[in-house]
Amino acid sequence: MMTIYDFTVKNNKGEEISLHKYKGQTMIIVNTASHCGFTPQFSELQKLYETYKEEGLIILGFPCNQFNNQEFDDMESTLEYCQLNHGVTFPMFQRIDVKGKNAHPLFQYLVSEKKGFLSDSIKWNFTKFLINKEGKVVDRYAPQTSPLKIEEVLKKLL
């Protein structure tokens, strides 16, 4: 039976990282974009990360440019924007596709584990997946759901 730990992703330097590195931690995995109406959620995600990282929370951000080209072309600009404007210190990874035939296997797995409202595919930036300490997808949250609204559920998993 698959878990999140079966996947590898490229960090923001392009190096392959196994998600097994985060085994035993509660995760929020989110597809992001720097120029989206939901971009202020970076600050909310960072607040959750700062509050709960010592209790085992890790947030993994995956920039995506599939929704109205709302992401920078280069990783350096993405990282700079996230850090300067939202204070992001949680891990950000290489830009990926989260839907369609070129969707990263991680996101194919996530959507297969938790279907969205009306459709399986990710409809927009800032779709959030909550993963428990055993690497199982617990829930999926729509882009318009504030990260702070999942705090109570998150606390139960920590």
Principal-axis shape: globular
Largest sheet: 4 strands, mixed
List unreliable stretches of 5+ residues: none
Helical residue percent? 25-40%
| Average predicted local confidence, pLDDT | 93
The helix count comes to 4
Distance between the termini: 23 Å
In CATH, the architecture is 3-Layer(aba) Sandwich
Structure description:
- The protein has a single domain, classed as Glutaredoxin, CATH 3.40.30.
- The strands form two sheets. It has a four-stranded mixed beta sheet, with helices on one face.
- Helix content is 25%, strand content 18%.
- The protein contains four helices and six strands, in the order βββαβααββα.
- It is globular, with a radius of gyration of 14 Å.
- The mean pLDDT is 93.
- The chain has helices spanning 41-52, 75-86, 105-113, 151-157; strands at residues 8-10, 16-18, 26-32, 57-63, 128-131, 137-141.
- It is of the alpha+beta class.
